């Protein structure tokens, strides 16, 4: 397929510091509309890889291309704006603003992304909440007062608002039991299908694989190097 959602080519990255961790990814590709679950043990480098994909850190060598743009060609500020326009990120700890309302948390990425803002309409935050099973009375509640499961759904709504072409999710189901995980993934996949977005999710939990187009083991696409201090 021409112009995939994401490609990594001969990527190498090492965290700075004496006891550092390095990762090399010769090749990885995510097609438009495709969902991939990336599996790896704790500490294997999954979050590091997502940071490279999102341009939160930049590769020491090689190319990370998002919809045809090499992230290394963008300066830091431009990379942040590009990320806000193109990627909905669901962080492991959700990263919600506890004193802001649910709706302000959901609308936050649009502040930095005018194109994404144009794609969203008034009432989208409330619509996403309803689609994700959040009752309408919590839309104006402070995010810090919600249960973990509710916060998780708000984090998903924030990633989906304005239909970014790529959703990146870091272990978003780790706090849920098996039944809740399945329900949560069902809602997430319905929303992603409706928006036509690609999904890259990382986890250590093999049981999540059934819903994804492809399951990839980090060890099969990447090699890592740990240096003792
Ligand atoms: N900001 C950072 N600075 C220095 N080293 C880091 C940083 N973030 C992660 N690392 C190191 O990179 C290695 C891989 O960590 P990473 O968080 O990518 O793994 P993971 O597979 O996502 O783990 P988990 O499943 O536990 O979240 C670890 O050795 C970690 O100490």
UniProtKB/TrEMBL annotation:
Record has Cell inner membrane as a keyword: no
Domain ABC transporter: 6-228
CDD domains named among the record's database cross-references: ABC_MJ0796_LolCDE_FtsE
InterPro entries assigned: AAA+_ATPase, ABC_transporter-like_ATP-bd, ABC_transporter-like_CS, ABC_transpr_LolD-like, MacB-like_ATP-bd, P-loop_NTPase, Sigma_54_int_dom_ATP-bd_1
Keywords: ATP-binding, Nucleotide-binding, Transport
Stored PANTHER family: ATP-BINDING COMPONENT OF ABC TRANSPORTER-RELATED, IMPORT ATP-BINDING PROTEIN
Name of the molecule in the record: Methionine ABC transporter ATP-binding protein
Taxonomy of the source species: Bacteria, Pseudomonadati, Pseudomonadota, Alphaproteobacteria, Rhodobacterales
């Amino acid at each position: 397929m021409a112009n995939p959602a994401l490609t990594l080519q001969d990527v190498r990255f090492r965290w700075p510091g004496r006891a550092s961790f390095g990762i090399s990814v010769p090749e990885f590709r995510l097609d438009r509309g495709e969902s991939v679950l990336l599996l790896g043990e704790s500490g294997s480098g999954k979050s590091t890889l997502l940071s490279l994909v999102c341009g939160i850190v930049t590769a020491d060598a090689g190319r990370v291309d998002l919809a045809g743009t090499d992230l290394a060609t963008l300066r830091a500020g431009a990379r942040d704006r590009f990320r806000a326009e193109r990627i909905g990120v669901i962080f492991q700890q959700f990263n919600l603003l506890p004193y802001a309302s649910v709706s302000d948390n959901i609308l936050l990425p649009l502040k930095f992304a005018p194109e994404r803002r144009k794609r969203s309409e008034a009432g989208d935050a409330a619509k996403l909440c309803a689609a994700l099973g959040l009752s309408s009375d919590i839309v104006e509640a402070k995010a810090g007062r919600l249960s973990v499961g509710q916060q998780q759904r708000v984090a998903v709504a924030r990633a989906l608002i304005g239909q970014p072409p790529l959703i990146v999710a870091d272990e978003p189901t780790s706090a849920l039991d098996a039944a809740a995980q399945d329900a949560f993934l069902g809602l997430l996949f319905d929303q992603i299908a409706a928006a036509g977005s690609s999904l890259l999710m990382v986890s250590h939990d093999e049981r999540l694989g059934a819903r994804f187009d492809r399951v990839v083991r980090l060890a099969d696409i990447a090699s890592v190097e740990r240096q003792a201090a």
